């Protein structure tokens, strides 16, 4: 904590080390600073932020496994509670008119009798899927922000809550790298709120190592166009792809004894199927022309 205070407001220790390396204060200092920074970074975790249950399996899993293979501790954050009353309605409908033959429930039938307003059953079952996915991926720590998804209500308040939580994590784990959803591309309010929080912290120099994943690429774009504009395309090796597919399958598993009801598949089947088939992930840096705020119509 001592060096955090010494760094002064808004300027992280890493920034100061970088500034020191650039300034003409002698090569010895620069090398020492760089070495220390590298050692700190090697132990610091890579923290992945999944806006909802299922986003990590769709668009972060390959990168999670890449960081693990490189020896980095990997922490996985679930940002929102993922409330979704529509899913409760679907799971109460009896014969599955939603997925039909693709539904993994016995005889494609489910009448769960869940509350259809502010359904806590949906939140609990979605979290069970998330934990199963995180277990498949072998992350070192699961962190549940447990934030009510206010992206469609008090958007700015929701962003503030995310900022506060991410700031706390960065203080707790100095030198961490932070991986978010590319909300300006994903075009969904919860994802945009996450990237707004990251962009604010990055612009204020509170966090320095930030990347964004285009999680909706698998559904929005034809396969040939998915990588267009990406700063980096991760080609997921077959061994990691096998594990990513296990994480995806956590969202299409019917096992009431584990509170698993294929909710992910009833929610975003197209995303999950396309990500299952595409061994790539699409990584972005923060655009220079980044625009804050909720995207109109989304
Ligand atoms: Zn999402
Ligand atoms: Zn169904």
Residue share in helix: 40-55%
CATH superfamily of the largest domain: LmbE-like
Named once each, the bound ligands are:
zinc ion
| H and E string | HHHEHHEHEEHEHEHHEHEHEEHE
CATH architecture of the largest domain: 3-Layer(aba) Sandwich
Shape: globular
Give me the count of strands: 11
What is the structural class?
alpha/beta
Given this structure, which CATH class of the largest domain is correct?
Answer: Alpha Beta
Descriptive overview:
- The structure is a single chain.
- The chain is of the alpha/beta class and 298 residues long.
- 47% of the residues lie in helices and 15% in strands.
- The chain has 13 helices and eleven strands.
- The strands form three sheets. A seven-stranded mixed sheet has the order 5-2-1-6-7-11-8, sandwiched between helices.
- Helix 5 (61-69) packs across helix 12 (238-249), helix 7 runs antiparallel to helix 12 and helix 12 packs antiparallel against helix 13.
- The model is unreliable at 1-36 (pLDDT under 50).
- The structure holds zinc ion (2 copies).
Q: What characteristics describe this protein?
A:
298 residues; alpha/beta; 2 domains; seven-stranded mixed sheet; two-stranded antiparallel sheet; 11 strands; globular; disordered N terminus; binds zinc ion
Could you provide a short overview of the structure?
It is built from 13 helices and eleven strands. With 298 residues, it is an alpha/beta fold. It has two domains: 1-43, no CATH class; 45-284, Rossmann fold (3-Layer(aba) Sandwich).
């Amino acid at each position: 904590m001592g060096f955090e205070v010494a760094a002064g407001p808004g300027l992280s220790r890493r920034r100061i080390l970088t500034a020191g390396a650039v300034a003409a204060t002698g090569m010895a200092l620069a090398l020492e600073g760089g070495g220390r920074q590298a050692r700190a970074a090697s132990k610091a975790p890579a923290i992945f932020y999944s806006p909802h249950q299922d986003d990590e399996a769709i668009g972060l899993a390959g990168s999670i496994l890449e960081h693990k293979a490189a020896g980095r501790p990997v922490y996985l954050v679930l940002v929102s509670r993922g409330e979704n009353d529509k899913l409760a309605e679907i799971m109460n409908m009896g014969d599955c008119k939603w997925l039909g033959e693709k539904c993994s429930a016995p005889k494609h039938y489910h009448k769960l009798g869940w509350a259809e307003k502010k359904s806590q059953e949906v939140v609990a079952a979605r979290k069970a899927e998330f934990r199963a996915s995180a277990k498949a991926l072998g992350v070192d720590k699961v962190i549940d922000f447990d934030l009510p998804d206010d992206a469609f209500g008090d958007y700015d308040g929701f962003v503030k809550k995310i900022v506060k939580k991410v700031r706390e994590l960065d203080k707790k784990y100095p030198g961490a790298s932070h991986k978010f959803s590319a909300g300006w591309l994903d075009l969904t309010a919860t994802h945009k709120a996450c990237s707004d929080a990251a962009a604010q912290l990055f612009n204020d120099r509170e966090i320095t190592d930030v990347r964004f994943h285009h999680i909706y690429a698998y559904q929005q774009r034809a396969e040939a166009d998915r990588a267009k504009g990406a700063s980096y395309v991760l080609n997921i090796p077959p061994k990691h792809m096998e594990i990513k597919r296990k994480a995806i399958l956590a969202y299409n598993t019917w096992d009431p004894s584990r509170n698993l009801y294929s909710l992910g598949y009833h929610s975003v089947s197209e995303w999950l199927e396309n990500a299952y088939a595409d061994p790539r992930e699409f990584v972005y840096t923060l655009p220079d022309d980044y625009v804050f705020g909720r995207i109109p119509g989304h």
